[in-house]
């Protein structure tokens, strides 16, 4: 069994659960009941809020912020300084003027499905789901669900192309067919959905 490694300056709550072979870099913070699957990598200064869940082989790079309600499935990559929100109506005070508390929040989350990647400085505005093997480009702001294999870019993010499991933009073959330039795998698009052949 591969041991867990935690940097001396990391702040890991004793109620957090870290899967075998996981590593937490310096200045990262894992709050209570955060859960990492095996072989997850948490970068310098990253923040995982209470109850955040990561499946196996996920990477959260430096200074990314994943607030409570976040779920990453397996083999997900989160780029540096990406932010996942969890509050649809953020306010410092209630309508009566008193400071808000946890009971005033209606927490929502971001779910990232297997194999997807979210680029550096991207903002994912909950609630939303990012589909399997999708790619969110650096600096994008995602405000709606993302289809599987979609390449999303812009503010707000929109689908600009399709990608394969390699992450490379697919070549258009015509007739709704696409091919990955890296693996040679072929895909078919039908009604806005991409399916591997």
CATH class of the largest domain: Mainly Beta
User: Which CATH architecture of the largest domain is right?
Assistant: 3 Solenoid
Query: What is the β-strand count?
Result: 26
Number of alpha- plus pi-helical segments: 0
Q: Helix and strand string, N-terminal first? A: EEEEEEEEEEEEEEEEEEEEEEEEEE
- Termini Cα gap: 37 Å
Q: Gyration radius, to the nearest Å?
A: 18 Å
Query: Can you give the mean pLDDT?
Result: 96
Give a brief description.
With 197 residues, the protein is mainly β.
Give your account of this protein's structure.
- The protein is an all-beta fold and about 200 residues long.
- It has two domains: about 140 residues, UDP N-Acetylglucosamine Acyltransferase, domain 1; about 30 residues, no CATH class.
- Helices cover about 0% and strands about 35% of the residues.
- It contains no helices and 26 strands.
- It is globular.
- It starts with a strand and ends with a strand.
List the helices and strands and how they pair.
Blueprint: E1 5-6, E2 11-12, E3 17-18, E4 23-24, E5 29-30, E6 35-36, E7 41-42, E8 47-48, E9 53-54, E10 59-60, E11 65-66, E12 71-72, E13 77-78, E14 83-84, E15 110-112, E16 117-118, E17 123-124, E18 128-130, E19 135-136, E20 141-142, E21 150-153, E22 158-162, E23 171-174, E24 177-179, E25 186-190, E26 193-196
Parallel strand pairs: 1-4, 2-5, 3-6, 4-7, 5-8, 6-9, 7-10, 8-11, 9-12, 10-13, 11-14, 12-15, 13-16, 14-17, 15-18, 16-19, 17-20, 19-21
Antiparallel strand pairs: 21-22, 23-24, 24-25, 25-26
């Amino acid at each position: 069994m591969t041991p867990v490694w935690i940097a001396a300056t990391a702040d890991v709550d004793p109620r957090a659960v870290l899967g075998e072979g996981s590593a937490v870099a310096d200045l990262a913070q894992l709050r209570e009941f955060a859960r990492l699957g095996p072989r997850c990598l948490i970068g310098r200064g990253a923040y995982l809020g209470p109850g955040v869940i990561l499946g196996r082989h996920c990477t959260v790079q430096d200074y990314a912020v994943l607030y409570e309600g976040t779920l990453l499935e397996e083999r997900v990559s989160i780029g540096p300084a990406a932010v996942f929100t969890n509050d649809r109506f953020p306010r410092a005070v209630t309508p009566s003027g008193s400071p808000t508390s946890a009971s005033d929040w209606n927490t929502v989350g971001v779910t990232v499905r297997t194999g997807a990647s979210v680029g550096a400085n991207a903002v994912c505005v909950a609630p939303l789901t990012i589909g399997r093997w999708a790619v969110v480009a650096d600096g994008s702001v995602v405000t709606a669900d993302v289809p599987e294999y979609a390449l999303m870019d812009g503010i707000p993010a929109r689908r600009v192309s399709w990608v394969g499991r390699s992450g490379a933009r697919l070549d258009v073959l015509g007739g709704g067919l696409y091919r990955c330039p890296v693996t040679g795998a072929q895909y078919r698009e039908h009604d806005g959905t991409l399916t591997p052949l």
